[in-house]
Amino acid sequence: MYYLKFSEDFKKDVAGIHEYISKDGVAIANEQIRKMREKAKKLKDFPKLGKVLEGTKYRFLVSKPYLIFYELFEDKKYVEIVRVIDGRRNYMKLLKF
Fold first, then answer.
1. Which of 33-42, 62-71, 78-87, 88-97 has the lowest mean pLDDT?
2. What is the distance of C-alpha 47 from the center of its chain?
3. What pTM value is reported for the model?
4. Between the CA of residue 9 and those of 2, 15, 41, 95, 97, what are the distances in Å?
5. What letter would DSSP give residue 90?
6. DSSP H or E segment with residue 16
7. Could you tell me the domains of the chain?
8. Contact in structure between 6 and 82 (CB atoms under 8 Å)
9. What angle do CA 39, 41, 31 make, to 5 degrees?
10. Which residues contact 79 (CB under 8 A, 6 or more apart)?
11. Choosing a second label site near 92 at 20 to 30 A (CA), which of 45, 57, 61, 66?
């Protein structure tokens, strides 16, 4: 089993997403965040679940319409979740390489 780490950028992304969706209702925002967290938790047991983002060190999971980006550290047995970005945005520009 792998350990999950959450970057500060990820935490900021989640807070921003929650704030944005809350305009349509807090319950809707809470449900979207819950879905993202459930998807991310799967990485504990299946760290290679996500697809490789070509040309980068990242992998990603889809939690429509969001993409959860993470980096796998097999030697240290942990996954760092680095960002969650709306897949309709230019996420390649938003990711730090």
1. 88-97
2. 13
3. 0.93
4. 21, 10, 18, 10, 13
5. -
6. helix 8-21
7. 3-94 (3.30.2310.20)
8. no
9. 50
10. 2, 3, 4, 5, 43, 44, 47, 70, 71, 72, 73
11. 45
